[in-house]
Amino acid sequence: MSVRVLPEIRTLPPLVVNQIAAGEVVERPASVVKELVDNAIDSGATQIGVELEQGGIELVRVTDNGCGIPAEQLPLAVAPHATSKIRDTADLDRIATMGFRGEALASIASVSRMSIRSRTAADAGAMRLDIEGATSGSPRPDAGPVGTSVSVRNLFFNTPARRKFLRTAQTEQGHASEIVRELALAHPAIGFTVKCDGRITLDLPPNQSPRERALAVIGGEMESQYLEVNADQFDDARGLVLWGLAGLPVLARPTPKWQHLFLNGRPVRDRTIQHALKEAYRGLVEPGRHPAALIMIEMDPGAVDVNVHPAKSEVRFRDSGVVHKTVYLSVREALRRADLTPATAPEASSPGVQGWRFEPTVAIQSSAPPVPSRFADAFQQMPPVTRKFEFLAPAPSVRAPIEPAPAVSPDGPLPQPVDAAIPAPAPSQRVLQVHNSFLVTQDEHGVVIIDQHALHERVMFEKLKVRLDEARAGGGGLESQSLLVPAVVPTTPQRIELVQSLASMFKRLGITLEPLGASALGVQAFPTFLFERGVDPAEFIGELLDRAEAEPETFSQSSVSTAEEAALHEVLDMMACKAAVKAGDQMSQQELAELLALREEIERSSNCPHGRPTALRLTIKELERQFGRS
Ligand code: ADP
Ligand code: MG
User: Fold this and answer.
1) Nearest to residue 154, comparing CAs of 36, 37, 32?
2) What is the spatial distance between Cα 98 and Cα 44, in angstroms, rounded to a whole number?
3) Model pLDDT for residues 384-441, shown as the tens digit of each residue
């Protein structure tokens, strides 16, 4: 057997050291743009210009009107581990600048041909320093205004292996422009221009408000698609300021690319914030999609560690719970305030073609007292055990005889409900069931068409949540029923472990599971209302465990306390869906009226828990337009 002998250990030459560092920081022209613009922001500039040639592969130039670099310090600026931004370890704990590692210029210079021209307010003229690889000349006089301009040419000219990884100029230009847009969103007081191969592609004036800047970057026509988010009203958020825009549920995308998250002016990717957003939109967007949002958080630099990622795009919060809660509560509040019922209207761009368009209107608080309904009354008077899901309770097979849905004439009154003791639905509650699937009614804006299953599912979900909270206050779980003979769910040893780790969640849901040997679980108790709606316990638990295995992130109960909430919500979604009235189920006038009354009560009734809309609205204005009356 041959013994391997390693060559002698040596200290690497500085150029190689810098190139290794560049490997972490400089991936493509966009990374150069980011580091140079970061420096320009730190310099106190009010105007920053970015020029790209060939998407930045040939040239990236960033010019600012900031403080400049004194001539004698120019060589230091490109030396590794040389920075003006921190002095000692203590400073590392409270970083208020974009940069602090002192390696960006050195790294970039080691893989390109760099030239820096700079002038401070005290200097009579500018000075210029050219660096190629490890060699830099000495600064010589040049013409130029106060500020700094850094030019980076021929990126990776001396590291051909990395140059090969560059994409087309167009792709690189896209990435680079995206970085500038991101930084511009974070710094609305600074003016930004981007010029690509001589053509101006972005021009943002200085001194914009965060809102003006956001609309300038994402497009002013998007204004109606976003809701403003503010964290002022939350006491817990002391020491933390939040402003943002929350996109309507329709803007959600399969990837988080429409999420812009900023911490103290730094664009970040952060799982805590992403998770909080996902939770805030729970029920409004489908689980696999990511809501569009812009969230800007300002907090004490001492409360967050930015020194966890070479490109500084990730952070670690000292107290991620506060951040999570603030984002979650403020976004949820913004969504709650908005009436998310979609309006139907032809697309402005395609006249004559009927399309659906979201038209959010701020929820109009009706001054009239809530419509009395048997359900609502029952909910208040009955003891906790039975006062839920009154009309929802009978399983389809044992439902009371069904009345035919009434014919409706546009201006005649609807037939009264059969039971005279029950007050007639208020005018806003007139309702017609069509094709046993949709309900047609009106509100102050026009005609509202409701998907009966989606709405019932949403109502069930919210009621279940309330029941669960009540049960928790009393230290218990959902009302459940014991099975005489346990329902058997085939399983694996891993699943038995999973069930054990989810024990407290099952307890709250009123579900009791016991292992029956190594390959089966027995369902010993099951929520009463699911029984009543004819849901099969073994099937339900099987599906629940499938989901828990497929989404370990949601169902891991270890870290944050929000994890249990997320898992619970997931299961409530499932329960609500299984228990809700299906499309095709005929409903009595009474049931229809009750469901509609609930719609008014329930937060977010405009979307089912899966994120599909529960209702669409055809406005009077739109009707008048379609009939040629206006
Ligand atoms: P860092 O930003 O982490 O300090 P860099 O290598 O990016 O490290 O920059 C090194 C130093 O050069 C900075 O600390 C700063 O003093 C100076 N510098 C770089 N760019 C500029 C600029 N545009 N304006 C003023 N000073 C700059
Ligand atoms: Mg820097």
Assistant:
1) 32
2) 11
3) 222 222 333 333 332 233 333 333 333 333 332 222 233 334 544 678 899 888 989 8
Q: Which residues are paired to 50 by β-bridges?
A: 62, 194
- Which ligand 1 atom is at minimum distance from the Cα of 100? 3
Residues in the chain, pLDDT under 50: 345-425, 427-428, 558-560
pLDDT digits 0-9 by tens, 38-94: 999 999 999 999 999 999 999 999 999 999 999 999 999 998 888 888 888 888 888
Question: Do residues 408 and 432 make contact, with C-beta atoms less than 8 angstroms apart?
Answer: yes
Q: Return the sign of the alpha-carbon dihedral for residues 72, 75, 78, 84.
A: negative
Name which of 443, 314, 371, 399 is nearest 582 in CA terms: 399
Q: Which residues line ligand 1 (CB under 6 A)?
A: 35, 39-40, 43, 64, 66-69, 77, 82-85, 99-106, 148
Asked if 544 contacts 574 with a C-beta cutoff of 8 angstroms, the reply is yes
Q: State the Cα–Cα distance between residues 441 and 450, nearest whole angstrom.
A: 8
Ligand nearest to the CA of 106: 1
Q: Which helix (H) or strand (E) element contains residue 109?
A: helix 104-110
CB atoms within 10 A of CB 421: 6
Q: Where is 381: in which H helix or E strand? A: helix 374-381
Cβ 541 vs Cβ 522: under 8 Å: no
Q: Which of 223, 228, 468, 463 is nearest to 333 (CA)?
A: 228
Strand ranges (DSSP E) for 378-490? 432-434, 438-443, 446-451, 480-490
